């Protein structure tokens, strides 16, 4: 059976999705090629999308508009939590540790859901809290999955707090190590007896959608335990990535397996 021709709505949605998925703000030519439209047709549709707030034009490049951002914020608090909840429960049961779900905001990440076993009741849940990149594994995993030019807003809180950015012990080196390994690891930086391990979920080669973070007592996480936690966390982020992916296969982070 022949494929039905694309409607005007199909073409508009294709362009909105292409803008949202692009790792860098695309130009008109890039978008027209990505969605298989004539350049003039893509331009006419983009004019309407800009007028309605679905796309923002900045010079010769296009960004997600305020309508997309508002819709995304609502989806983050509802759809993402609902979809991810079974994954959090499974990961917490498999590891016997606390697990949280985080998303990026303006200059931090925010914890939007938490599963905490009774035995770890002494560890703060941080539900609803905004976390800076220099103190927590979740934002570190998310920021490391961003393109370098998109990281600047998340570095400012660290700089304001006097945290070193450069040098072998600086935040930039920590972000690069996390990008290469695919995992962010923190030992007692926020709460002394607490350690955490986080991994970002990146769908369709775009920006990170969220991160899963495993949190537990530092004394329980030796080298062998850390390797097992990485495997369980990788499996969970890949499962969540499949649930969130619109086009099929997905990677939970851009790095090679650790």
From TrEMBL:
This is IclR family transcriptional regulator. Gene3D superfamilies: 3.30.450.40, Winged helix-like DNA-binding domain superfamily/Winged helix DNA-binding domain. Keywords: DNA-binding, Transcription, Transcription regulation. Residues 6-66 form the HTH iclR-type domain. Pfam families: HTH_IclR, IclR_C. PROSITE patterns: HTH_ICLR, ICLR_ED. Residues 67-246 form the IclR-ED domain.
